[in-house]
Design goal:
about 180 residues, Arc Repressor Mutant, subunit A, elongated, 2 domains, Rna Polymerase Sigma Factor, Chain: A, mainly alpha
Length: about 180
């Protein structure tokens, strides 16, 4: 059998593969039927086993295992895969995770829009150096060291400006609420 698998691996020899199939297919089917009650699934596993034997014949190493061990291991692994698929629960279409988020109410959209406009006005009222660090850190999504490098200022200055800007924005926005 080892020589037949080598012929399949090296030459894609169909005659060798046919001999392997005729010898092992009934044995693999009996092996799988002993563990699975569905004859149709057993047939499927046998077919997949021999497709893998054809495709992966180059991976067979006669020093590690006999041909029969290799083929039955492929069949066993496919059987396990099929059982896992069969036992996987069906998704529940009523699960909230599958439900789309509700459309926001008009009031919420207007409120968010007004909040955004207030925030933009407040940012515009900040000193230029604070606006610049906020723009880079939050809107350009740069890290603090990247902001420091881009503006050619110390990292501590970046952090101080961000802290001052956020403090001013918080104070101003709380006063408007």
């Amino acid at each position: 059998m080892n020589a037949l698998i080598a012929n399949v691996a090296l030459h894609q020899d169909r005659a060798s593969f046919e001999q392997i199939f005729k010898h092992f297919a009934p044995r693999v089917k009996a092996f799988v039927l002993g563990q699975i009650t569905h004859p149709q699934m057993a047939e499927e596993i046998v077919q997949e086993t021999f497709v893998n034997v054809w495709r992966k014949a180059k991976l067979f190493d006669s020093e590690k295992a006999a041909a029969s061990t290799w083929i039955f291991t492929i069949a066993r692994n496919l059987r396990i895969d099929h059982l896992r698929k069969e036992n996987r629960p069906e998704p529940d279409i009523n699960d909230p995770a599958f439900m789309p988020d509700p459309e926001p109410m008009a009031f919420d959209l207007i409120s968010h829009s007004q909040d955004a406009a207030r925030l933009n006005r407040s940012i515009e009222g900040l000193p230029e150096e604070q606006k610049e660090v906020l723009r880079l850190a939050f809107f350009a999504d740069k890290s603090h060291p990247e902001v420091a490098e881009a503006l050619k200022i110390p990292l501590g200055t970046v952090k101080s400006r961000i802290r001052l800007a956020i403090s001013r924005l918080r104070t101003e926005l709380e006063g408007m609420a």
